[in-house]
User: Fold this.
Amino acid sequence: MSIDDPMFDGLVGVRMSFDVSRQSAPAGAVIRLWFESAWAELGGVLKERVAAGVPDDISVMATTGLEGADLDDMFFEDDMTRWPEYLDRLSAGTYVGAMFRVTASEGGSPLPYYRTDDRVVCFMYRTGDVVQLIVESKEKFWYADPAREAAVAAFLGRMVRSCDVDYAEASFAYGSIMTCVEEYTGQFWATAAGTARRQLRGYAWLTVVPSSLVPQVGGAAGLRSSGAFWAVEELPGGAVLLRATEHFGDYRDAEAARVLDVLRPVLPSDTPASAFRRKVDIWRRRAV
Assistant:
């Protein structure tokens, strides 16, 4: 398979990581809210189409995993009536992994699900006290119009207020548990997430810098005056939510370079200036 295979193009995601030991709210409550809100707010036409039952050309599945168990234990498949029960299970906060996937299928088969533009896939990973939450889709599904784009930004903005977040971003994503920067620099996600208050995990169209790192990049005032961001929003507790451009489609390598110039002091030294608009941008750079 060529690294230029177009199946990797246009994959986008939102992610957030936090340390359970720092939270005032139970981890299970945050995990449930992520899955519930992602489906409710970012499910789009898929949510509308499964409201009355799962049609034949849509694939639905939900899995969970306990410590030492198969992380792909099926909870339900093509039966959205069990969605409330699934959310209740997530609220327990006892799982080390969970996945909820709704995709338009091809020829009656859910595979290869990554080729379809109509897709919403939620993940949860936990190692020790570190939890990472991810929701992925395709650029054409989330960013086809301003209303959908606004829903993505609002979702992330609301979620980073639900806990004391260590890192969050809205970016291109390629089915990896790592951020694009972590993939490029060869970092293991759990290590990077565990030290996210000492070194930023990445940067993207939307980036949350935790409070511990904000002073090292000039504070909120310095970030605003840098000219690298369309918006800088202070969050409760001192973290900041950075928006590089008004619209996701305008975030490209030149805009990424401006963001990197400002955030470089808190990023890995070999972080490249890239919007990572294609998977090949990671693979080719790592091969150099």
Summary: The longest strand covers residues 11-19. The longest helix spans residues 27-42.
